[in-house]
Amino acid sequence: MHDQLHVQMIVQSYSGKGGVRMTDIRNGMPAKQLPDVVWRKSRHSGAVGNCVELAPLVDGGIAVRNSRYPDGPALVYSRDEIAAFLHGAKDGEFDDLIV
Question: What is the pLDDT of residue 92?
């Protein structure tokens, strides 16, 4: 109960740039509208913008965007969803997509 109350207080009081609240964050929203995020990309990414960038969100989620379109849509995933994807990628489950 305490954790739920704490999260609710954060969501109610948090307001980022443009007045966007955490409750307003949704899949497909413009990445530039996400409040106070710091985007990261892999050191394996090329210099020509062929990478995916990730950013942790205040609510514990993780946003993903295409580096070639930094103001384009952001997809928002839970930590468990990202962990499942990363485990699958490390196990080679998606290797057939890039052959």
Answer: 96
